[in-house]
Amino acid sequence: xxxxxxxxxxxxxxxxxxxxxxxxxxxxxxxxxxxxxxxxxxxxxxxxxxxxxxxxxxxxxxxxxxxxxxxxxxxxxxxxxxxxxxxxxxxxxxxxxxxxxxxxxxxxxxxxxxxxxxxxxxxxxxxxxxxxxxxxx
Length: 137
Prior knowledge:
alpha+beta, six-stranded antiparallel beta sheet, 2 helices, 6 strands, 26% strand, globular, disordered N terminus
């Protein structure tokens, strides 16, 4: 696999709203992964799916995202799947995403248990709220 060196982006006081995770130089992987930064400054790697193309999921963190034609992404909702039935988790994501106008689902599968998933959700939500408050000021 060919790796690509990427210059580190500049950070404002709130960190980045989002950051593509470039994992290789193949075009097929250009948008497959994405980092979202929490209020703690920690980056969380997410797999990116279209709302319709998202697979059935185990318990995981998610972000429902609106991606615009210009490539800009806006987080609309943060949460975690909570059902043992993977098909119910997928149904919930598609239903909620459709209600709020999301066209992407970003999935973080690296939290090991429900306590870790709750911490990830709180960290990402706090960062999002800070950004909203800063933009409103």
